[in-house]
Design a protein that fits this description.
This protein is an alpha+beta fold. It is about 35% helix and about 30% strand. Strands 1, 2, 4, 5, 6, 10, 14 and 17 form an 8-stranded antiparallel sheet that branches. It is globular. The chain starts with a strand and ends with a helix. The model has no long low-confidence stretch (mean pLDDT about 95).
Length: about 230
């Protein structure tokens, strides 16, 4: 299930983040790659322990906490602290699959990577190439969103970032451990939640909306790990 989360960040948020990141140190992105990914990865990254990365990551976490679409789609249990990367001319990330477990630096916390997230910080007209290409059951999905928009997709997916041919692509990326680890179950719950919200807008708290809400929560109880 691929989900676009539009306008997670406001234009002012994006401008602030880019200003802070422009004065940061950037290092080889291989520092957070696994053994297989390291051979495929060519980009730059702000170090995980950087004060700027922590400051901006906390800002993103606050926006996520207030976003109903993200909560409905991800049913988050844990969110790995957001990281920041940059692809300049000729940089790319060949096809790979993200590590299944991530260890939070400086804390005894493990995050199972059920979902991957890319939050775009560059306007699409500012660079050529750089599409996030995700392989799913319907083939390859190319994603290149407006600055401030985010895409969620299963971390089990093979994916890549196409080479940059002009400009520079900046983004935040991170992973989510969901309360519901199975992508198919999450997709059913997401569709059911959307149906309930649409029904409420049309008919208010009708008996049908109340019944569907009960079904939704009973399925969450059955499937969730809290």
């Amino acid at each position: 299930m691929l989900v676009r989360v539009p306008r997670l960040l406001s234009p002012e948020d994006v401008t602030h983040m880019r200003g802070r990141l422009s004065s940061s140190d950037w290092v080889d992105g291989k520092i957070t790659a696994g053994a297989q990914s390291a051979t495929a990865k060519r980009n730059l990254q702000v170090p995980e322990t950087s004060p700027v990365a922590r400051e901006l990551g906390e800002m993103i976490l606050q926006r996520l906490g207030r976003n109903e679409l993200f909560t409905s789609a991800a049913l988050p249990l844990r969110v790995f602290p957001p990281l920041f990367n940059r692809y300049d001319a000729d940089m790319k990330f060949d096809t790979h699959i993200d590590n299944s477990i991530r260890f939070v630096p400086g804390a005894p916390i493990r995050v199972r990577t059920d979902l991957s997230a890319t939050l775009f910080l560059s306007a699409p007209e500012d660079y050529d190439g750089g599409e996030l290409v995700i392989e799913d059951t319907y083939g390859e999905q190319q994603v290149k969103l407006a600055a401030g928009d985010m895409v969620l997709y299963p971390a089990t997916s093979r994916h890549r970032v196409n080479p940059i041919t002009r400009g520079s692509r900046w983004a935040s990326f991170f992973w989510i451990q969901s309360m519901v680890r199975d992508d198919g179950q999450r997709a059913l719950l997401f569709d059911l939640d959307n149906t309930i919200q649409s029904l409420r807008k049309k008919e208010g708290e009708s008996p049908e909306a109340i019944q569907l809400t009960g079904i939704y929560h009973n399925l969450v109880r059955r499937w969730a790990e809290a």
